[in-house]
Amino acid sequence: HPFSMVENEEFKKFVKLLCPNYNIPNRKTLSNSLLSAMHKEILNKITNQLANSQAICLTCDGWTNINNTSFYALTAHYIDSNTQLKSHLLECSKFNYKHTGLNISQWIDKIFKKFHIENKISAVVTDNAANIKFAINNLKLRHISCFAHSLNLVVQNAINKNIKDLVEKTKIVVQYFKQSSFTLTKLHEMQNNMSKENLKLKQDVPTRWNSTFEMLHRFLINKEPIISALALLGYKNTLQPEEWDLMEHCVNLLRIFNEITSEISSEKNVSLSKTTILSRIMIRKVKTYLEDKMLPVTVQNLGEGLVEGLSNRFGGRETNDLIAQSIFLDPRFKKQGFGDENKFHVTYQSLIARIRTFIIQESISQTTQPILATSSTNSIWKEFDTTISKLQGTYNPSTAAIVEIDKYLAELHIPRTDDPLIWWESKKFLYPNLYKIIIWWESRKFLYPNLYKITLKRLCIPATSVLCERIFSKAGQICNEKRSRLTTKKINQILIVNSNI
Fold first, then answer.
1. According to the UniProt entry, where is the signal peptide (predicted)?
2. Residue 166 covered by a domain
3. Does the residue 45 lie in any domain?
4. Are 111 and 451 in contact (CB under 8 A)?
5. In this predicted structure, which of 75-89, 90-104, 160-174, 429-443 has the lowest mean pLDDT?
6. Span 7-23, mean pLDDT?
7. Phi and psi at residue 242, to the nearest 5°
8. Which of 252, 280, 315 is the last residue of a domain?
């Protein structure tokens, strides 16, 4: 709501009823004092929380508002000391420079220094734009392509190559009904006459493929009312029977992509580890659908285009060690999350090497000099101390790493729908009537201390940069007509406060 709301007489009356003794701050106090104080407090809190984190993943995206003002947003994701996944908006500010990779990298670097996190970044998730990928590489950071953006490109490309005419024809009919209350009334009459629900037609948004699916799906549901309404209105450019048949097949084929887009975009828990599995599911589902030899050629071409796009975009993701290790360390998937057993073994060996390094470093740092004994005591214990020293010297870091990993792999998988950071552990034998929530990795960080360290750096990486898009959605709501005079500084403060409370 705009700041002016506190000066609205009806709002004042409402607050008075709730709390008669409360003095509402005026617009100026709210905007200049209270907002700034809360913004500063929240930034300090975020800085402290990030300081206590072991590793941080970032997502970054850009946006242009209705006034053609450019913004960039940067969000941070990490696993806290309680093994809970946390996310914060660090910045959403006006971008006054050319959108070159160098300028974007300088903007990101300033935020790093502001929050003192430049040495903690495990990866950055963004779309596939060349300038932002250059910015990440320029900062010498690891880049991961946003799964949702990549999937959007795959489906949009297949749609544009194979069913563009059908989509355009559908859009024209939808617009025909939406542009006039008279035509829309006719459609509602037909829906009522046929005892159909008054479902509104949807228009697609060019940048979001799933809006095209939603348009076609809603159009297909309203098939009979649409045909009847268009006939009564004398509309000539109607869809032919074969086009309706084609639309039905396309909706069936694209439904799986819509479900996966919705799942991955709404995911608030660990998500990167599931992306390779989801891509294989999509390929398998499409290939199964294409086994029907009676399908129209256009549908066959659409399906083949989808499979090709998925293979090209996602086929090599398991070769990325960040993604591969996130699969391995997710107790829902582990070995079963890999489509290629060789990639599993490569990841297995890479983790052994990392853990071996951890063990060696810790053994060096923890090495202490033996306590000096008196000469008489020394002569008594010399043989025993020598034997113990020899035993300690035979400790093999590689063997210790293998033992830790194999023990982890031998544990039962947790259900796929569970949060991999949380495991419900029954205590019914010790406490008959008590079931306690146990953090899976938190409860095992002493059992698998080295795997736990890597887990903090891998499972914090989200599959998408969707959180940035949600921030921009909020920004669009803030930059409405009632708030058109807000400065970009105020917009940033409002977003930081709103997103991090």
1. none
2. yes
3. yes
4. no
5. 429-443
6. 75
7. -70, -25
8. 315
